[in-house]
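Minutes, structural biology subgroup

Action item carried over from last meeting: produce the structure token record for Microtubule associated monoxygenase, calponin and LIM domain containing 3b (Iconisemion striatum). EB confirmed the sequence was re-checked against the source entry. Recorded below for completeness.
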Amino acid sequence: MGAQVVVLEKRESFSRNNVLHLWPFTIHDLRGLGAKKFYGKFCAGSIDHISIRQLQLVLLKVALLLGAEVHVNVEFKQLLDPPEDQNQQSEFHEKAAKVKTRVKRNGRSPRLTEGISIKIKVLSSEDT
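Output recorded by EB:
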């Protein structure tokens, strides 16, 4: 569909340990997204709950595979009207460029990706 998806995470790492009870239709949707492939213990047997951390990791994997751009240590404050001169960079992009950690499909974030077990290889012109 051509959408550019940007995900903002206020925290530096996925450290929430609370457990969520999942409704049957939510389990069905998460299975459709591949949650069982990314987290083998997902809804094994009659277990219908998942930790927030594991849910975030599953959804991060799906988002990265679909090409979403993920920013951590970034907080949404407000929505601003676009500048009259569209060539001027928006305030969001200026702030996002200053954050400590950014994760993209082709990038690395050691703290954020430490629990997601995705092997990441970054290719650059030096690798060729």
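Discussion: Helices lie at 24-32, 35-38, 52-65, 91-96.
Next step: EB to file the record with the rest of the batch.
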